[in-house]
Amino acid sequence: MLPPIVADYLLECWSVLREAAPFVLFGFLFAGLLKALLPDTWMSRHLGGRGPLSVFKAALLGVPLPLCSCGVVPAALGLRRQGAGPGATTAFMISTPETGVDSLAVTWAMIDPLMTLLRPVAAFMTATAAGLAANLLPERLLRSPAYAPVATGCGCGGACASSSFAIAPTPAGSAHNHAHTQTPAARPGLGARLRSGLGEAFGEMLADVGGWLLLGILLAGAISLFLPPDFFASALGGEFTSMLAMLLVGIPMYVCASSSTPIAASLLLKGLSPGAALVFLLSGPATNATTITVMTRSFGPALTGVYVASIAVCSLFFGLLTNRLYAALGFDIHAVLGSVDEVLPAWVEAASALLLLALIARAIVVQRQASRRLAALRVAAKHLPA
Question: CA–CA separation, 292 vs 299, rounded Å?
């Protein structure tokens, strides 16, 4: 028999997992369809250039893509190498990790429809503001990165950097004109693209964020069980104080958009304001200590400063705006949170939770096997005669 406190904790975690699982599965299904239907060169073609239109496109196109703050770095490096302006690159790096189809689905399930709408709108506006500010930087303060593999010190273990959602950079020193003389490979048929896209969504992508999603659920269960209901009202009673605390926690911390959602939902149940929750949902996924380090090395301190400052200022602004909007509309987010478990039948939630656990376990095992095979090939290659 488990001690009562452990049993209660596991039941809280299971409850959070049941509520989130159907929408996580839907989000990854949509992400796989997105990968299958968008041509590989579509993003780089539309995000090139230095005008404000490229910034708007980058901010908009990054919203549905399920890349974390570490996985988006190689994509941004590739865009920069292929001619994207600093504004488009910065906008893409902010809107992409702050939200995605998977995290929006979980936000709908675990928080409320208004937050589901505010989250991508705030991400788009933050990315646009940062991109336009980055375009104002003089060229002498910008650094053009020569591509190098991203350090694997990010919270996702570096595996997300290999996702084919990331745009492949042109290696430094390669002949530019040579690419124009190559015959483009025929694009696979729809069936093959669907199999590949869904395979990647429920393979590499799920392996990248699955463990962190489960960690978020474990943290949400602990918050729900152990924090008193009036914790934030008593400990962080000031509106701006709670937002600043969420910002200071979110900026250096690695948490993907999906795993941040159950944490935010549990914090809301303990009295956190919707504006402070939005600050965490924006700042947590958008950046972490490793991303800031890689950006400084690859793009220079000026662009990195615009990136971090834009996230901080816009997160606080939209947090304050969110509180005013909820008050003006008369929405009680805490009342809505109490009824989210009635969205789907219990058997659907339970079956989805078990399926999600099985898919995460499978994806992680397959990824580790592939990593071991790759390491063995590298060792063997070192011993081959020159």
Answer: 10
